[in-house]
Amino acid sequence: METNESVQTPPLETPTPPKKSAMAIGPIAVIVIIVGILAAGAWYFLNQNLEKLSVDAPAGTVEELQTSNDPDVQASLSQGSSDELDSIQADVSATDFSGIESSAAAVNGGASAQ
Length: 114
Prior knowledge:
Elements: H1 20-56, H2 62-66, H3 71-77, H4 85-94, H5 100-113
């Protein structure tokens, strides 16, 4: 018993690739959102630091410092500006370090209180 059945295969269809424009929008949108969030965070951080720096900045100009009655300011203004070794040694010898330990203790005490 012979049958002449022929096996028919369906025609091969080539799959159509997905549209490239629709596939690229998702990652690009995520990248744009992340960059926007980072830029907003940087702007906020920069503004906070600028406000803090402007509050902590010492008030006064050079003229006010030069006319100050503070002995430490006057001592620093009387130091030479030469970079010669003898001049530097003379400035170091003329500097009064008698209160440096109490100042350092005050600074360390203030830092540990925070």
